[in-house]
């Protein structure tokens, strides 16, 4: 809308006298709602209404005296013709920040897990006592969190008896899965253990179907075929196959399925963060595992094995034990921090990608011989895990 105002300098000055002083000095004037009559020689009485704000363009030498007879023009335009003002989209920024946070969690989780598996395998090669190794991992994590709470680096969780009762089945499942996986890696290659553990989604579906009564779409069940087939092919073609190692990985799969189900349920009804939740889980698992570790292996075997490892490896062995214990806690803690932020499905996808990084890195570090048919079985199993995650969406 264009309104042209023509008048003499004295008439214009009289008009501007009606405006407040501040408005006279403002280069651009805005009226929230302006109803004006447009003056034109052709249409002297035509009126124009608008509920949109009008803006006046600045006048040259506004407020100064003009020679008599000079015409001044002021142009007005509607607000929707002005340039739009960009406001920051807080929701978009929050979503981007959340994605970045989860990405950092995943990258840290995978890196810590790779380092743990390498040092864990080095320790088990020199010190074949998986029950004590598992105990030291839980003890290191418990000590780290107790010191963090005492130094107030991390706020201690507020728990009660009901919390610990609900945590008990999670701790039992976690203890079984942890020890079984360590026993498996003490007997077979790290890559083989994780190939078998990539079949965890199959156990998840079976447990959810027959124990929890949950039903899934047909594509979910079909995705189990390549998972089971790939794991079977990799196991049959494994050069260093060991039944104890194979069964340890299978038991670990089943135990961790129950742990994840119970953990997600427990984290929904408690105000304890993922970091503190896993810390409490480590402490309770340590109390459960310690008497069994003493009964199965015992201090005499540990002392003899420790002396032999030090004599063969040297002081570096102490660093290996400390590293595998600390990195075990850190990678699990970050995984629970991730689980606190994402859905179980996204967590499952991240877990699958983690196994790929562990398998590849362990083959490179330990020079594990891999036959083409064995690699094909691993690839099929991992592909089936990816299809499973897509089918559950």
TrEMBL record:
Please indicate if the UniProt record lists Transcription as a keyword: no
GO terms for CC?
Answer: chloroplast membrane; Golgi apparatus
Q: How does it sit in the membrane?
A: Multi-pass membrane protein
Q: Name one GO molecular function term.
A: triose-phosphate transmembrane transporter activity
User: What GO terms describe the biological role, i.e. biological process, of this protein?
Assistant: transmembrane transport
Determine if Cytoplasm is one of this entry's keywords: no
> Residues in domain Sugar phosphate transporter?
100-389
Q: Which UniProt keywords apply?
A: Chloroplast, Membrane, Plastid, Transit peptide, Transmembrane, Transmembrane helix, Transport
Which compartments is it annotated to reside in?
Plastid, Chloroplast membrane
Domain of life of the source:
Eukaryota
Its transmembrane ranges are 102-119, 131-151, 218-237, 243-262, 274-293, 313-331, 372-389
Main location group: plastid
Its protein name is: (wild Malaysian banana) hypothetical protein
- Origin species, per record, is Musa acuminata subsp. malaccensis
């Amino acid at each position: 809308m264009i309104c042209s105002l023509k008048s003499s300098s004295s008439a214009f000055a009289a008009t501007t006298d009606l405006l407040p002083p501040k408005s006279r000095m403002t280069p651009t004037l805005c009226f929230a709602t302006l109803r004006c009559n447009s003056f034109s020689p052709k249409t002297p009485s035509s009126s124009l209404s608008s509920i949109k704000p009008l803006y006046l363009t600045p006048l040259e030498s506004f407020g100064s005296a003009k020679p008599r007879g000079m015409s001044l023009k002021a142009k007005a335009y509607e607000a929707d013709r002005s340039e739009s003002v960009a406001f920051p989209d807080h929701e978009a920024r929050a979503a981007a920040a959340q994605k970045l946070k989860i990405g950092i969690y995943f990258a840290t989780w995978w890196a810590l897990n790779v380092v743990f598996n390498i040092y864990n395998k080095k320790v088990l090669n020199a010190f074949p006592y998986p029950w004590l190794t598992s105990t030291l991992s839980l003890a290191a994590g418990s000590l780290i969190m107790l010191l963090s709470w005492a130094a107030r680096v991390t706020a201690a969780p507020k728990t009660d008896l009901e919390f610990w009762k609900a945590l008990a089945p999670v701790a039992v499942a976690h203890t079984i899965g942890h020890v079984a996986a360590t026993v498996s890696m003490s007997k077979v290659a790290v890559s083989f253990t994780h190939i078998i553990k990539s079949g965890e989604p199959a156990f998840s579906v079976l447990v959810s179907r027959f124990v929890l009564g949950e039903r899934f779409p047909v594509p979910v069940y079909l995705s189990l075929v390549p998972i089971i087939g790939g794991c079977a092919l990799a196991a049959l073609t494994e050069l260093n196959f060991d039944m104890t190692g194979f069964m340890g990985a299978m038991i670990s799969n089943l135990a961790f399925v129950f742990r994840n189900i119970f953990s997600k349920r427990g984290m929904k009804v408690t105000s304890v963060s993922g970091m503190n939740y896993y810390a409490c889980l480590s402490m309770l698992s340590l109390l459960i595992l310690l008497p069994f570790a003493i009964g199965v292996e015992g201090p005499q075997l540990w002392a003899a094995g420790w002396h032999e490892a030090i004599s063969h490896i040297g002081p570096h062995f102490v660093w290996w034990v400390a590293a595998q214990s600390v990195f075990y806690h850190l990678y699990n803690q970050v995984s629970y921090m991730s689980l606190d932020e994402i859905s179980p499905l996204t967590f499952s996808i991240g877990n699958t990608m983690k196994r790929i990084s562990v398998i590849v890195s362990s083959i490179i570090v330990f020079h594990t011989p891999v036959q083409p048919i064995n690699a094909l079985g691993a690839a099929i199993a991992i592909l089936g895990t990816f299809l499973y995650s897509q089918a559950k969406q």
